[in-house]
Amino acid sequence: MRILFILRNAEGGIRTHVETLMRGALEQGHDCLLITDLKQADSGFQKTLSLEPEIRKRVVSISMRSAPGPWDLSTLWLLSIGLRSARKSTKTSDGTLDAQDKGVFFDVVHGHGAKGGLFARLCRILRILPRETKVIYTPHGGSLHQMHGNVMNVLYTWIERFLGKYTDCVLAESQYSADQFIKRIGADTAPVVLNRNGIDPIEPVLSPWPEGLGRTSPLKIAAFGLLREIKGFDVLIQAVHLLKNLNYKVELEISGEGKSRESLEKLVRDLNLESTVTINRETSNALSAMREAQIVVQPSRFESFGLVSLEAQATGCAVIASKVGGLVDVVDDKRTGILVEPGQPQALCDAIKWFIENPSEALTMRARAVRRAQEDFSSEKMIDGALRCYQETQLRTTLRS
Question: What is the per-residue burial (b if ≥16 Cβ within 10 Å, else e) of 100-120?
């Protein structure tokens, strides 16, 4: 198959998801192209492009903005030019298309996130790609969570319902996303298929914690992600402040980039936590940093999936996450980790205290989390599920015709 991925922002968990799908498809012999805005790409994707030439030569960068507006017209124009250029590059020396290219240039276009999904569907509506090309859409939060204000929420819902008519399949990365699409957009707009996000195999570390951890020696807490209000790192910093006031020994390291850096650093200073809390730049090796910690916390106010929590569980870390969105799927509360209400520093504080006070039970929970990550959330399952969805969507259309 020939697969076109469209993604606005190649950063964070959504970048890892698309990158894994693309790499897996290439390894299975399919041809791929990714259209994204490299100006918004994180350091992890830049590293991939520098180390993996097979992916780098299949990436086309065009400018994309988050909010809908007239600038999307210029993006569409650039998108159509880029696809025409790509099609010309498949011509033979005499200027004609090879026999296998005379039909559909891309068998599948898979849009990721609200803006990637918009452009994928517009490719069909505006005939930028042939009508035979199948359109797949994976929402990654974006327009599905009602956090944009009443007017924008209504607008995004209307747009999604309209675009659903031009969608062959909604491929949801979590049960939360599947449920939200059906609830807010409607089950009758497009078929919804659950294909859980997955990660490559990780070697776990399940050694018991040193005795007295958190009391006589510092408990190391780690957090990772974009430095934005929605990620809830301010709540985690406040929880650490509560722990310090209770004379627990803890150290927190937050790794990431974003517009909230200054406000988070100010909060650390205001609470006199300079010797306890460190806000690092984005790490190029989050797994290594996780292995240096005992607990990984994902205190998001919203999360469509929760890749950080999944990776942390796979490494053998104890995990605390907010009881929101896809995190409810990733963390089995009280069995593979602890879920707390979002925006509640005291709840986070209590969860960290529980791990300090119950190291044996924590080890059992960590081992259970490793097994579940390996069995239910593998990248192999995710890649096979996506490719199967592409093929079955094509087959359904063939049978209908």
Answer: eeeebbbbbbbbbbbbbbbbb
* Rg for the chain, CA atoms, rounded: 22
Cα 120 to Cα 192: distance, rounded to the nearest angstrom:
16
Helix (H) or strand (E) holding 61: strand 59-61
- Which residues are within 8 A (CB) of 174 and not within 5 positions of it... i.e. 6 or more apart? 194, 196, 197, 304, 305, 306, 325, 326, 329, 330
Helices 12-27 and 379-400 meet at what angle, rounded to 10? Answer: 70
**Per residue in 324-337, pLDDT tens?**
988 999 999 999 99
- Is residue 297 packed enough to be buried (19+ CB in 10 Å), middle (13-18) or exposed (0-12)? buried
| Residue-level pLDDT at 313 | 97
Q: Of 325, 326, 320, whose CA–CA distance to 369 is shortest? A: 320
* Residue 98 CB neighbours (<10 A): 9
296/48 Cα distance (integer angstroms): 25
Structural tokens at position 110: 């898979």
Spell out the SS3 assignment of 211-223.
CCECCCECEEEEE
> What whole-number distance in Å separates Cα of residue 284 and Cα of residue 15?
14
In whole angstroms, give the CA distance from residue 50 to residue 129.
Answer: 30
Q: How far is CA 184 from CA 67, 121, 286, in A?
A: 20, 19, 34
* Burial category of 364 from C-beta neighbours within 10 Å (exposed 0-12, middle 13-18, buried 19 and up): exposed
> DSSP alpha helices (H): ranges in 149-200?
150-164, 175-180
CA distance 140 to 117: 10
- Provide the whole-model pTM: 0.83
Strands in 113-213 per DSSP E: 134-138, 169-172, 192-194
4-33 confidence digits (pLDDT tens):
999 998 988 899 999 999 999 999 999 999
Give the C-alpha distances (Å, rounded to integers) separating 191 from 59, 119, 172, 181: 29, 19, 10, 10
Nearest to 103 by CA among 82, 143, 148, 134: 134
